[in-house]
């Protein structure tokens, strides 16, 4: 049971890093970006090319995956997404869904349709036992890395001037501009960082989740469940929702193999019946 709990936490951490960018863009920027998984897939494939084909060390491939995905996100934000900020959610959904199918077709053409995994260094392979609990080395790395990223992201959003400017730009962009805040730059940086985190999550999760051209479609529903269950008012909600769903999914698939896939949806329904706005609902402004 403790081993399942450990694996569930690792899986939940990966889900959070993959989905936290969507939580930021949807909860803070009010942009429905269903193509978020495409940026995660980009980070995964960039790491595959750098590590598996070019022989770059794994720990060097991770920051490069973040930087490359952030650069792609910044480019798309300045050229495409910036025109959607004033549009309705339906327009944003249709555009981002179209972008998903375009990315799936492009990756299938360039990289092929077979599932790929990143070659891990020997120091991250295998596991060791702690008090009889089998602890995978790579999963422990994921938990530590994602935990540090979560703390850093929460500190940036709640305790820095940039976080204050972002909240001001979202609440009232016109007033924020009147106060001298460069709203376009704030949104561009936020979107780029969210895309970079998605790419980093795709690189870290490729070994656990697998990587193929339909990755954005397979895990789109997971990202949406994390944001829906956790709420969009802060990072804390999606973080707790990711842990809850990760542990529930792993335990469900282990104890109920035939019904395990439904456990995560059952958790979602129960939580939303209890709190329709998510675990941490965004307060209404006066």
Report on the architecture of this protein.
The protein has helices at residues 2-27, 36-53, 58-79, 89-111, 137-159, 161-171, 173-178, 183-209, 215-230, 236-255, 260-274, and strands spanning 127-130, 133-136. The protein is mainly alpha-helical and 286 residues long. Strands 1-2 form a two-stranded antiparallel sheet. A hairpin with a 2-residue loop joins strand 1 (127-130) and strand 2. Helix 2 crosses helix 8 and helix 6 (161-171) packs across helix 8 (183-209). The mean pLDDT is 84.
Coarse structural class: mainly alpha
Give the N-to-C terminal Cα separation: 47 Å
User: What's the SSE pattern?
Assistant: HHHHEEHHHHHHH
Output mean pLDDT. Answer: 84
Poorly predicted runs are none
What count of helical segments does DSSP give? 11
Placed side by side, the strands forming the largest sheet appear as: 1-2
Number of strands: 2
- Seen as an oligomer or otherwise, the chain set is single chain
Shape: globular
What is the C-alpha radius of gyration, as a whole number of Å? 19 Å
- Main β-sheet, in a few words? 2 strands, antiparallel
Share of residues in helices:
over 70%
